[in-house]
# Entry
Amino acid sequence: MVFSSLFFVYIFLPLLLIFYFAIKKDAWRRGVLLVFSLVFYAWGEPVYILLMLFSALINYVFGLLVGAGKTPAARKAAVAGGVVLNLAMLGVFKYAGFAVESLNAVTGLSIPVPAIVLPLGISFYTFQAMTYVIDVYRENCAPQRSFPRLLLFITFFPQLVAGPIVRYTDIEDQLENRRVTAKQINDGLYRFAIGMGKKVVLANTCALAADNLFASTAGPTVLSSWGGILFYAMQIYFDFSGYSDMAIGLGKMFGFTFPENFDYPYISKNVTEYWRRWHMTLGGWFRDYLFYPVMRSKLISKLTKALKKSGHKTAAKNIPTIIALTVVWFSTGLWHGASWNYVLWGIYYGAWLILEKFVLDKAYKRIPALLSNIIQHVSFIFITLFGFAIFYNETNLFTKLGHFFGIGTTGFTNVYAESMIYENGVLLIVALICSTPLAKMLMDLVRKKLYPKMGEETAYTVDRLIKTAVIFALFALCTVRLVGDSYNPFIYFKF
Amino acid sequence: MNEIYERLNKVFADVFDEDITVTAETTAEDIEDWDSLTHITLISAIEDEFRMKFSMKEVVGMNNVGELADIVASRRKR
# Structure
């Protein structure tokens, strides 16, 4: 079931809200959330729901085992067991086919490739569940003794399928104590409506423009490649950040505060900043649960000491970071999908981050600030677009990448590409503006300038009225559009 | 405690390649190059200097140099 569908918006969500608020007892309310979450998942995955329940059960048991461990060694063994089992599950259901295919390609063997359909949301819920066990080990939280509560954390539908990656510690207290006010429901609906608008109005339209440019019957050109990927960049941002907005909004309606996932990534100056603004919960996850452990591993600290001893001071400081970043970005790429283009995409970003950290940042400091800003912003745009080109093309990657530089194209441009971009010019401008904080800045300005003059109570009412008007307008607009198309999948559902 | 801060200054200067004087209130915001990547290099350098270990919870959770120095003071071996 997707959030941006008529069934979800007009049947599932209202039913859930009615049941939830008709019941007063908190334990029963959690029960309602759990049942609706399971129905939500089973709607698309009637069989694999068993796998998710199994995963929750394993992590529940390992959480308790880690908590019960008397010695550091026992705790370590328990957390290692939990992590291995989670990764094994992910390995079988997400990577088995890919691994066998790659092996066949390298060795020339023809081992039959297992045909396993990717269970919905497995990358997200496995990471969340595994994080819980690690957090118990690190004493960031106590083990959850109630299975239904842990199950609700893992299966809670707003964040189940495509993030944000919510950690158990984020919502540990909220599982016990939630207060939902009318204001929160209004805020939640507003956030949901914004997300739905991003998805249904902007992402779906940009998707059409991107597909048309890539699939041009007049043959590929340099212009259609860059234009297509520009629309794809808009599509994926509104698709994914829209999904996160909807998830955060839904959480709010039921008293949960989820972490933010996007912070206007496209206004970034460089790749380092971009990864602090794009899919923030994933970046934070890899930092805390992979980068730090690798950096603190015995192997790395031995290497650092050896380098220091032999007098390579700078290398001792930099080489460990470079190794750890390579591991992290290889994994980030692979996490996105079982295909080499994602791995390449991850390494591409890892390489840029290393380059910025150790070379470019220092170089940019030597030239005038204005000039350095312009160079960085412009190069960032091309780096990001080319990154998406790697990300987008699961098949024929190198042929497709060649088109960006005029290799194998029918020319720099043709009438079809030009008219396609011309026709979608207004859409592109609107999308570009909406991807910046401009609207937010305007709203903040209104709040700062006008509201103080109104008095607190009037300002509050006006604020609510504006938000409610936006909710109704966006719901109406999205409904009209959704009645038209029956199919609008989210990009991140396949990860 | 003063002695700890003096030695911390040396470690910071070494890791960030510039003269830095830290106080209890210094945070990552105050030092330009102190990001999540350098943070861990810094932690390892401090561990070497004082012959002690931070737990992962402390590595992720410390908010300023003051908290860091308190942990060092309570656990250092030299």
User: Anything to note?
Assistant: The mean pLDDT of chain A is 90. The interface with chain B takes residues 138-140, 272, 287-288, 291-293, 295-296, 301, 304, 317, 320-321, 325, 357 of chain A (CB under 8 Å).
